[in-house]
Amino acid sequence: MTYILEGSEVTTSSDDSQNTRESWLVDQITKSEFFHQKLHDYGLLEIAYAIETVQGENLEWNLDTLNISKLAWNKVIHHGIPPVLAFAHPHVLISIKRSIGYYRGLAMVSLKSMSNIGLSIERFETGQNKHPLEEDKAWATARHLNELISRLIESDEELDLREFDLWRGTTAGSTAQGSWQNRKGGIAEELVKGFIRRRIRERRLISKENDTDSQALLKDGRTLAYMSEPDIALYDENHQILVAIEIKGGIDKAGVLERIGAAIKSLSRAKQENPAAITLLIMYKVSMTYQTLEELEAHRDEIDYWLTIEDVLNRDSARQEIFKLFNI
């Protein structure tokens, strides 16, 4: 059994206070990294930069049609703020992918509240919908968001463009909190997948992705799949598995052997398909016991490497080792 990062000893202390503190710290680190990754996923900066390039003066701004109050409009103009940065315009919502999230952030409303009034926009905001927003929906969405944005602008005695960043950041944090609560059990898996997605996108290794981002064809012919059993897999051009990763995110010690058993079954199937496939298990250090280490040692044939989630979150060297296994 090879632990990729040498010198990072796994402790299995039975001291309750120490275990409680470690569990709390792991939870906080995981949550911080999750929120950080979500801000990248939401594309807050990229979308804002794209909107800033729009020649808003070439658009027709009929205040009544767009549901923009005259007071809010005059305030924005008086402070030298380009209207396109403050108010939603259907042309922008249709032409700039995911821009709907920028204006929802300014209005400080949730995706759920939008859906409740018949304006379900999540697939357009996340980029999952590959087709542009329909014109009727763009107008309805712009009018609704502009009404809310107008009221916020009117309520401020002094208007500062930087405050728009605070509004959007508040909305993004609220959205991330909802995602955290809904998917807390699978956060570790989502974070590791997120690291890999970001890596191949930043290095421009992708040839094609499917609509759900669950699979990416790389330019060298290999395929990365984010699924279950295994959680992450790399295949060659003939769809033979090359690398398999299982991520077990539970932190309770009581169920750790059951989680390892499930991981072993998954990774052993990868070895059966291709004995030369590389297998990696990633799990929380705080969940490990002496029995855990014995179980890992007893299954050298199924698990080539293992890492702790804490190392993956805290050490760039751990993430680099994962990238090295994938050759990305």
Structure notes:
It contains 15 helices and 8 strands. By secondary structure, the protein is an alpha/beta fold. The protein folds into 2 domains: 2-34 and 186-326, Restriction Endonuclease (3-Layer(aba) Sandwich); 44-159, no CATH class. Strands 1-8-7-6-5-4-3-2 form an 8-stranded mixed sheet, sandwiched between helices. A hairpin with a 5-residue loop joins β4 and β5 (232-235). α1 packs across α10, α1 crosses α11 and α6 (100-107) crosses α10. The chain is elongated. The model has no long low-confidence stretch (mean pLDDT 82).
Please estimate the helix content: 40-55%
H-E order: EHHHHHHHHHHHEEEEEHEHEHH
Q: What is the CATH domain class of the largest domain?
A: Alpha Beta
Strand order of the largest sheet: 1-8-7-6-5-4-3-2
Largest sheet: 8 strands, mixed
CATH architecture of the largest domain: 3-Layer(aba) Sandwich
Overall body shape: elongated
Task: Report the CATH topology name of the largest domain.
Answer: Restriction Endonuclease
Q: What portion of residues belong to β-strands? A: 5-15%
By helix and strand content, what is the structural category?
A: alpha/beta
Overall residue-averaged pLDDT value: 82
- Report low-confidence residues grouped into runs of 5 or more: none
Query: Rg from C-alpha positions?
Result: 24 Å
N-to-C span: 24 Å
